[in-house]
Task: inverse folding
């Protein structure tokens, strides 16, 4: 089972090296890093790495997290893919744990469920609301829809024909998987939220809710 890591990056000079070191030390078979037109030292940091598992692609224009994931998916050659944020919120050592239910044949898709109580209150409430909305609209039984760690067969991920450019990529993926009647299981993962997130909670929260409705009922 070959695992491809889809790594969208935008201005992550502070934590990128530590993140890459952890991903390269994991069980990942390939890492597709997409520099989303960063304006900081991100390109220079990426240039320091020469591991054959790492492929670096640079956007000439910023396309958002969803755009980075779509570009990475185009170049992925693994059987399964997982999305990795380019910071230290998630721990790549959890990859093996996430793959275990798939290897055992218990489920085709696994999400890494976080302990959301460690988030700031607004983020905690927003994530809980979007997850409840997902469960009501899509018939899922998730505790954390917005998690970055989504392990999905690469062929299925391509079939979803993802369109979202921003953070609303998360509900798009989930709504489209649920519409196909595919089971989504969860595994608890480590999570260390950072206070200075790029996500704008109210704006991106409304966009995510709209995307959830759109991809559940319209597209």
Result:
């Amino acid at each position: 089972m070959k695992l491809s890591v889809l790594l969208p990056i935008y201005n992550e000079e502070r934590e990128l090296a530590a993140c890459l070191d952890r991903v390269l030390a994991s069980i990942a078979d390939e890492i597709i890093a997409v520099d989303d037109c960063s304006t900081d030292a991100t390109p220079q940091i990426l240039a320091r790495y020469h591991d054959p598992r790492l492929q670096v692609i640079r956007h000439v224009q910023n396309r958002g997290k969803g755009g980075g994931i779509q570009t990475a998916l185009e170049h992925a050659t693994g059987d399964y893919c997982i999305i990795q944020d380019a910071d230290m919120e998630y721990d790549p050592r959890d990859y093996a744990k996430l793959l275990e239910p798939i290897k055992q044949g218990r489920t085709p898709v696994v999400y890494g469920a976080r302990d959301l109580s460690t988030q700031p209150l607004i983020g905690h409430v927003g994530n809980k609301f979007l997850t409840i909305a997902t469960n009501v609209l899509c018939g899922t039984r998730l505790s954390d829809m917005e998690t970055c760690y989504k392990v999905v067969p690469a062929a299925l991920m391509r079939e979803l024909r993802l369109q979202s450019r921003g953070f609303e990529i998360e509900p798009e993926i989930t709504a489209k998987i649920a519409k196909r009647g595919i089971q989504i299981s969860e595994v608890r993962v480590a999570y260390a939220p950072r206070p200075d997130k790029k996500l704008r909670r109210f704006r991106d929260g409304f966009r995510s809710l709209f995307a959830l409705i759109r991809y559940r009922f319209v597209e």
Summary: The CA atoms of residues 13 and 44 lie 9 Å apart. Helices lie at 16-24, 42-47, 64-75, 95-103, 121-138, 154-159, 169-179, 201-217. The longest strand covers residues 3-9. The chain has a mean pLDDT of 93.
